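Hi V.,

You were right to ask for the full record rather than a summary. Here it is.
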Amino acid sequence: MNNGFSKALAIADYDADPLRVASRQFDIGSTRSNITVLADRSSTNADGTKRRELDVEYVINYGDGSKNERATQTIISGSSAGSTMADKSICSVAENKTDWRFFGNREIVNTFTTAQNERKERALLATGVAVAPPVVYSKFINLGVQDPANVATYATLSGPGIKIAGVDATLKLVSVRLLRDASEFVGKNGHFVDWRDTESFRVCRTAGAAGNYATAETADCVTNGATADRWGFENMTTALAADTGFDALGVVAGGDYTIKIYNDDGWKTVNGQAGKTPIATYTPRLEKLPFSAVTLAGAAPASDLFAKVLTNSMTVPDIATAVRGRGAFSVNLTYSQPAAMPDGRKLALGSLYTFKQGRQTVAQPNFNPASRSFDPTYPATSATSATVAVPAASANLGLPTYAEVTFSHFNRNGNNVRSLYTFQ
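Predicted structure:
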């Protein structure tokens, strides 16, 4: 059991997604070094068998030059008897071997915080004409709660820099399964009919289509819906504004975020989590801050440090027309890799993906219920060209209102740098 995945769930996840193996191709040829034992525990299980557990930390050295400098894992020798699954059931088939093998962190969901920098180059979906200003910058942290075993309904989150109206606050996040399937969310903000089960929980909002995040104590999730899984400043017309806004929040590198996981119906009522007992509590650490947006932006958008499309087999207006037409199409791209980052760590391409969303029907008066699709491809991490096959819109998407092509780069140490070409 690791980050909400049992072995069976992990196998099913790979079997269900033909691109899942390609998404991990960067693992091929990787090596481990600097192995350190953090903890060594010996125990006797209820059935009398023995188990020894080691928590280890090490460096993963990838073939593309990137490194995960603080990878961790728990391994065991002996019997796995008595170990629990995500739903608190006891593992039905225990192994008893002297071999060392992965035991996982035993966490029933996956929680994480990640530092993000973004560059968006924007065009109108209606025409393909550039939006003014054409390039904007964002600086934020991702707030991740993923539930592959379907054991949770909502969560609360607090930590350094989570402030509302200048006061330390706790947020309330709702499972995307509920946003997709629960009758209470039909037509509400965040009601997409095709959320994927493993996508991150979304934060409950205040009233209004452009509502901001609400505190956990005041959030009316059912009335106002839940959208986004990020905290910071987005789509700022200057990089300085992104830095100034984010830096004032008080987010700190090494800060721990308290995430409480619930599986009751406290999402249905205001402050419904009060008096409820979480089924788990985790404290993921924000290892790194986002980079200075000013440093990444440089003197001008054309020379900033982000990855950029160099040549394109379709014009921007033609891409906009193709998206509106809802049919499948392909785009041949050549692109630059990001320039050297301020910390000197190697960035590697995690995925090159397209995204579309919009209303289910042209005639519906409100945006929700809506449809969204995420379609990744995985070029070699050091590649500078790719053919991006954009599938036809699903039957759920009747009126596209937004699309993007995104280069998502990671340094494997808590920083994600993304370059987006958007149609809005």
